[in-house]
Design a protein that fits this description.
There is one protein chain. The protein is of the alpha/beta class. It has three domains: 7-130, Methylthiotransferase, N-terminal domain (Rossmann fold), CATH 3.40.50.12160; 160-388, Alpha-Beta Horseshoe (pyruvate-formate lyase- activating enzyme), CATH 3.80.30.20; 395-454, OB fold (Dihydrolipoamide Acetyltransferase, E2P) (Beta Barrel), CATH 2.40.50.140. Helices cover 34% and strands 20% of the residues. The strands form five sheets. The chain has a five-stranded parallel beta sheet with strand order 2-1-3-4-5, with helices on both faces. Helix 7 links the parallel strand 9 (207-211) and strand 10 (243-246). Helix 6 runs parallel beside helix 7. It is globular.
Length: 455
């Protein structure tokens, strides 16, 4: 391929876990001599890494593919590759709907993207070549898991990066399609993750975000004593001025040992992202979450006691089949009572292949679900504003992400994960970015934004 350099443009959709796959493909392609460009108008190949978690994500992917078909027609010889969760989940439908796509690849094709591209560009192809390794029904269950030896090109701002510590999921929540897409859980070893952490720190990264479908289940599949607590101990021993953030914890597997490690660690920030989905016994049981209301409430109270000053983020699901008005009111009351620091709400959408999609009774109208979502978000906005105003006048440590127009910088506190949480707008010169992590004084606050000046 080095004798035939091509320009390739990447589009990565969906979550940070999907972004890591995109970064591995980008590194593999760059290592093989492919030139990457952010300008699709200059590219010969367009690679779209898709998400298929919920209906909105699939719709976004379909729109992107449709736009890529128009892009392809603008210039002879262009090629379109569609990768990721959508072809992994719906290859037969995609084959039929998008005959102009030159290559569909599944999740296990990530490490061989360069070879697949080379074959695609080598000459005329049959329809069979558009989905190598796939049978009539689609791709086999995913088994691939990258490690620290995989080529990787970071696509995040220089301040932070993600490390996928495990892939797949062994939970069987009745609404979730992830196990059917990503496969069973498979965890990396502690030395592998620690080595990648060291690599990223050597590149100048100041924040490591550890991610998986369920980080608290990390190591359970290895059956050798590997745990998230053990991983954090190992990574915390690394030298440097940096943060470690753990994302996507399942409430069922939060242990006292884990909380103790987080409390004592030098680098692990006091931040917990723990999707609860609901708080009523009826809904938690219907969703097969593995914990009831009493146990869930006790855990959340325990987190604030065990980690003083912890930032707690959750996501909730409203409109699940059978959700009564009383159950929703219980959830809304809990949001107001517990006062989460960060919160997001999804409305239920039936996902093909999940047990919930087979439910025909007690369906909640989408208008009702959206109204319930809006009610919770209005309540949370008031809470968020009050909490943010309490920071005004205080000095906080922030990580600097990027420069903004007008002599300003985008930053985040220890309580803010990339992309999903608050932003701190710091008034200061671009050269301040070189410092990575700095102290600032908070001067103003809105619902989801703080303003600040260097301390």
């Amino acid at each position: 391929m080095k004798n035939q350099p091509v320009l390739l443009s990447l589009i990565s959709l969906g979550c940070a876990k999907n972004l890591v796959d995109t970064e591995v493909m980008a590194g593999t392609l760059a290592q093989a001599g492919v030139a990457l460009t952010a300008d699709a108008s200059q590219a010969q190949v367009l690679l779209i890494n898709t998400c298929a978690f919920v209906a909105d994500a699939r719709s976004e992917a379909v729109v992107q593919i449709e736009q890529s078909m128009a892009w392809k027609k603008q210039q002879p010889g262009r090629r379109v590759i569609v990768a990721g969760c959508l072809p992994q989940r719906e290859l037969p439908r995609l084959r039929e709907a998008f005959t102009g796509v030159d290559l569909f690849i599944g999740l296990d094709d990530v490490p061989r993207i360069a070879a697949l591209l080379q074959n695609l560009l080598a000459g005329p192809k049959t329809k069979k070549d558009r989905h190598p390794g796939a049978g009539a029904e689609g791709f086999k269950e995913a088994t691939y898991l990258y490690d620290e030896t995989a080529p990787r090109l970071l696509l995040t701002p220089a301040s932070h990066a993600y490390i996928k510590i495990a892939e797949g999921c062994d939970h069987r929540c009745k609404f979730c399609a992830i196990p059917g897409i990503r496969g069973r859980q498979r965890s990396r070893s502690i030395p592998s993750v620690a080595a990648e952490c060291r690599q990223l720190l050597d590149q100048g990264v100041h924040e490591i975000n550890l991610i998986a479908q369920d980080t608290t289940s990390y190591g359970r599949d290895r059956k050798d004593g590997t745990t998230l607590a053990g991983l954090l101990r190992e990574c915390d021993e690394l030298e440097g001025d940096f943060w470690i953030r753990v994302l996507y914890m399942h409430p069922k597997h939060v242990t006292d040992e884990l909380l103790d490690v987080m409390k004592k660690a030098r680098h692990v920030v006091p931040y917990i992202d723990i999707p609860l989905q609901h708080i009523s016994d009826g809904q938690l049981h219907a969703m097969a979450r593995g914990m009831g209301s009493t146990e869930t409430r006790a855990l959340m109270t325990k987190l604030r006691i065990a980690l003083p000053g912890v930032t707690l983020r959750t996501t909730l699901l409203v409109g699940y089949p059978g959700e009564t008005e009383a159950e929703f009111e219980e959830l809304l009351a809990y949001v107001k009572e517990f006062r989460f620091d960060r919160l997001g709400v999804f409305t239920y959408s039936p996902e093909e292949g999940t047990p919930a999609a087979e439910i025909t009774e007690g369906l909640v109208p989408i208008e009702t679900a959206e109204h319930r979502r809006d009610m919770i978000m209005r309540a949370q906005q008031a809470i968020a504003l009050e909490k943010n105003k309490a920071f005004v006048g205080k000095t906080l440590e922030v990580i600097l992400d990027s420069a903004l127009p007008g002599g300003k910088l985008a930053a985040r506190t220890k309580g803010d994960a990339p992309e999903v949480d608050n932003v701190v707008i710091v008034k200061g010169p671009k050269k301040l970015l070189d410092e990575g992590i700095v102290q600032v004084r908070i001067t103003g606050a809105t619902h989801y934004e703080l303003t600040a000046v260097p301390a």
